[in-house]
Recover the amino acids of this structure.
């Protein structure tokens, strides 16, 4: 199971996830980190046409960021509106989607070969400061959504909509497990 940390300020997006069993995938340049999609190369190694080809390959993909750890306090603080939101546990069909772990080794060094794998490799590297995220990325190219099986909802400790979320989820999909977060008790 992988996890999506979510604010519920825009409740309709949460309902869409539960109702349609899908998650939104963004273009890389709309992700939080301003260094997304950056890479290194030595001057003279890449022609302007190769740089352009890399940009074009990266722009073909949409990314859904998921995480291996469901109870990380920093993730709760950053992505769930300070424990007011939820964490959604999902299964992703790895036969249907290209799911890759993020490598926290800094910007990748590109030399000359350009393919869709080169673009995905670039998009799966982040600086070490983000290592706590334990991110997995799901790549899609045409559809802005990935189909998932929602299996679990973890309610933030400050979530004031617990009762309505429980009723809603039980009406739509009673097989989804609903639990309270414990991450605020870890530290």
């Amino acid at each position: 199971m992988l996890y999506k940390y979510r604010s519920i300020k825009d409740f309709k997006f949460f309902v869409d996830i539960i109702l349609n069993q899908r998650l939104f995938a963004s273009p890389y340049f709309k992700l939080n980190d301003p260094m997304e999609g950056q890479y290194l190369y030595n001057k003279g190694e890449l022609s302007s046409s190769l740089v352009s080809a890399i940009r074009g390959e990266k722009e073909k993909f949409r990314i859904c960021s998921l995480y291996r750890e469901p109870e990380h306090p920093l993730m709760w603080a950053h992505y769930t509106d300070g424990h007011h939101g939820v964490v959604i546990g999902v299964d992703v069909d790895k036969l249907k989607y290209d799911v890759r772990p993020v490598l926290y080794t800094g910007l990748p060094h590109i030399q000359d070969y350009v393919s869709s794998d080169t673009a995905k490799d670039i998009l799966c590297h982040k600086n070490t400061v983000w290592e706590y995220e334990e991110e997995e990325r799901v790549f899609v190219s045409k559809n802005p959504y990935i189909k998932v099986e929602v299996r679990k909802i973890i309610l933030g400790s400050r979530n004031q909509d617990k009762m309505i979320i429980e009723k809603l989820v039980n009406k739509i999909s009673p097989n989804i497990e609903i639990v309270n977060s414990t991450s605020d008790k870890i530290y």
About this structure: The first helix runs from residue 11 to 20.
